[in-house]
Amino acid sequence: MTKLPILTGALLCAFSSFATELSVEEQRIEKATQAMPNVLTAFSTQVEQFEKQWRQAQNFAQAKALVQEYAHQLWQDAKARIAATQSYDDRELYWARLLSSKVIRSITTGYAMSETEQNVLLNLLEQGSRGQSDLEYTHNTSKKILLTGFDPFLLDRNINQSNPSGVAALLLDGQVISHDGIDAQINTVMIPVRYEDFDQGMIEALLAPYYALNSVDMVVTVSMGRTDFDLERFPGKRRSVTAPDNANIVYGGTQTAPKISSLNGRPLPGNEFVEFSLPVAHMQQAKGPYKINDNHEVTTLEKTFKPKSLSELEGAVAVNGGGGGYLSNEISYRSIRLRNELNSDIPTGHIHTPRIQQFEPETEAKIVQQIRTMLELSLKAL
Fold first, then answer.
1. What is the rounded CA–CA span in Å between residue 264 and residue 275?
2. Per DSSP, what are the bridge partners of residue 190?
3. Cα 104 to Cα 122: distance, rounded to the nearest angstrom
4. Which of 303, 304, 320, 334 is at 20 to 30 A from 75, Cα to Cα?
5. How far is the CA of 63 from the CAs of 94, 109, 124, in angstroms?
6. What band does 9 get if pLDDT is binned at 50, 70 and 90?
7. Which 3 state secondary structure label does DSSP give 303?
C-alpha cells in the first residue's frame, strides 16, 4: 500500500508568509487514515503527483493552471473509479479533496503566494472536484436533468460515514437515461455540508443560470434522510437544528427559535414555506425496496401537521420544512425560492434517501438504482 507523506508526518509543512491553519475538515485526516486507510489511499498516486507539481509552481498562473486541471481530473477519476469498482463509495473523493486542499494550505510553492491567491486556488479545487466546472450537456438528448448530492457529514460521530446522495451524484453524472422513447442526460454536482457556503450564495450562483434561461428540464436535489424515500413537498426557510456542519459550526437555530440563514450578507429573502414541483405521481411508481412518500409534514411554531396546500401555511413561521431544519431542507428551499423568483417553470424538488449506517454499499446500490428509476419515470411528465 502506497504511503502518503502528508499522512505519515514525514513531510515538514513549510508555511507561507501568512498564517494558514488546517481547516476543521482537514484536521480529521489523521483519524480517518487510522479508521479506513484504504479509503484515504485510493487516490494516493494523484495526490502525490499533485504535491510534487505544486512545489514546483513558479508563479500564480502556473499554480492556477495546475489546480484547475488537477481538480477537474480528480472529479473524472472519482467517477471512473466508482463505476469500475462498483464500490458505491463516495468517501474516497471526499477525503482526496481534503488531502489536496491540505497540500495547498500547508506546503509552499516555488514563489511567495499571497493569502488571496491561496483562497482562489482552494475555491478552484472545490469547484472542479465537485463537478461544478464540468456542467456540460454533451449528448443530444431531448431532456436535461441537473442533480445535486452531498458530502458525508456528522463525521465526528462516525468518521467512516458515507452518503448515498454523493454516491448517486458520482454514478449518475453524464449518464443518459430513457423511458418510452424519451431520453435525458443527467449532470450532477457535489455540495459541501457547510453553512458558510450556503450563506455565501453557492446554491444561487450554481442554479441561477439554469432558471434564468430555462435551460434544463428538471432540478433534483438529493440528500440522506429517514427510513424510506421522501419527496419533500414543503421546504421551510429556517434552520432549526443543533447539529454542527462539517466545519463544526452550529448555526444556533432551535425548534423553539428557528433562525433565518443568509444570502451574501443579508437575511435570506422569501416566504416561510415553498412548494416543490416534481412529477410526484410518476416518481412514486419507481419499483424498488423502498417506499416513496409524498411528504407533506412540516413543523411551525404552532404545530406539526401535514398541510394539503401551501395556502394552509400562510402566516406561519417555519421550524421544520418537509426536509427538516438542516441543509437538506435548505438546499431545497433555496432552489425552489430562486426558481420562483426568476419565474422559471423548471420542475424542482428534493429527494431524501433512506438512511444508512456509516457505509453500506449493497444498500447504497439499491438506493441509487431506485433514484435512477424515479428519474426515468419522470421523463414523460417533463
1. 24
2. 149
3. 7
4. 334
5. 22, 8, 11
6. very low
7. coil
Q: Whole-angstrom Cα distance, residue 92 to residue 96?
A: 6
Judged by DSSP in three states, 10 sits in coil
Would strands 298-300 and 304-305 be described as parallel, antiparallel, or unpaired?
antiparallel
Q: Can you tell me which residue has the cell 421550524? A: 319
pLDDT digits (tens, 9 = 90+) for 69-84: 999 999 999 999 999 9
For residue 132, give the 3-state DSSP assignment.
coil
SS3 300: strand
Q: How many CA atoms are closer than 13 Å to the CA of 79, on its beta-carbon side?
A: 22
**Bridging pattern class, strands 182-191 and 229-232:** unpaired
**Is 373 strand, coil or helix?**
helix
pLDDT tens per residue, range 104-116: 999 999 899 999 9
Integer Cα distance of 188 and 89 in angstroms? 16
Q: 211 Cβ partners below 8 Å, 6+ apart?
A: 219, 338, 339, 342, 344, 346
Would you state the cell numbers that stand for residue 290, as one nine-digit string? Answer: 423502498
Residues 6 or more apart in contact with residue 6 via CB below 8 angstroms: 29, 47, 51, 99, 102, 103
Asked if 189 contacts 203 with a C-beta cutoff of 8 angstroms, the reply is no
- Helix, strand, or coil (residue 221): strand
Find the largest Cα–Cα distance for the chain: 62
Q: CA–CA separation, 257 vs 373, rounded Å?
A: 39
369 grid coordinates: 438504482
Going by C-alpha positions, the residue among 276, 321, 271, 314 that lies closest to residue 299 is: 321
Burial of 366 (0-12, 13-18, 19+ CB in 10 A): middle
What span, in angstroms and rounded, lies between the C-alpha atoms of 239 and 196? 13
Instruction: State if pTM tops 0.90.
Output: yes
DSSP code of residue 325: S
Task: Kindly state the cell numbers that stand for 65.
Answer: 493552471
Per the document, the length of the chain is 382
Q: Parallel, antiparallel, or unpaired for β 348-353 and 218-224?
A: parallel
Q: Evaluate if residue 251 carries a pLDDT over 60.
A: yes
H-only helix segments in the chain? 5-8, 29-35, 37-40, 44-56, 60-85, 91-106, 115-129, 164-172, 195-199, 202-213, 280-283, 327-341, 361-378
